[in-house]
Amino acid sequence: MRSRFTAFAVGDVAHLRASWHPTTRPECLDLDPDVRWYRLDVVDVVAGGPFDDDGEVAFRAFHRSADGRGVLAERSRFVRDDGRWYYLDGVVG
Question: YchJ-like middle NTF2-like domain location, by residue (predicted)?
Answer without folding.
Answer: 1-90
